[in-house]
Amino acid sequence: MIDRPLPAGATLLVDLDGVVADNLPRLCTYLAEAYGHETTPAEIDEWAYEVPEAGGHVGDVIAELMADHAAWYLGGMEPLPGVADALDRLRERYRIEIATHRIPETHDVSRAWLAEHDVPYDEFHENVPDDKGALAGDALIDDYHGNVGDALSAGKTGVLMRQPYSDPGAVDGAHVVDSWGDVTRLLL
Question: DSSP letter at 114?
Fold first, then answer.
């Protein structure tokens, strides 16, 4: 656990997919409808999860969805349970900045989704480097262990939101959480 709370005013970098938005159900729907590939969110246990019918893996399909069906895919996701209330509470103590690897062409859809679901934040980063640890901030809340590892390497607090494709064993020193309730217990 964190030995001391992060100082008031600290910046929390928060990812969207798998952290704020529940991305896997919508992805599974698309895989079934577009490719006849039946799967469940629990079965997508790595980002290299192969989709033979699509000629690649889920990362390729997500890139296709963002490029060709952003409004349907990103705009149709449900928020993770408790995220709006948790970020509202966290925002009383911390600065909340959205740091997503969604392509810039989808940022209007993303901001509209955040507003529609009353998800509070202070800033939306337009350009996020591959290494999220390079962003100014004090902590990163992300679902991908590689991003959390980058944050830890940069001296930030790393919080890994567990998803089927997350590998908590790959990020020694990360705080692994299963819900936004866990995040608020950790940081408040």
Answer: H
Beta bridge partners of 134: none
Average pLDDT of adjacent 10-residue blocks, the chain of 188 residues: 75 98 98 98 95 97 97 98 98 97 97 98 97 98 98 96 96 96 95
Residues 109, 140: Cα–Cα separation, whole Å = 22
The number of beta carbons lying within 10 Å of the beta carbon of residue 40 is 10
The answer, as to whether pTM is greater than 0.85, is: yes
Instruction: Give pairs for 22-31: CB < 8 Å, separation 24+.
Output: 22/77, 22/78, 22/79, 22/80, 23/77, 24/163, 24/164, 25/77, 25/78, 26/73, 26/76, 26/77, 27/58, 27/61, 27/62, 27/65, 27/73, 30/61, 30/65, 30/69, 30/73, 31/58, 31/61
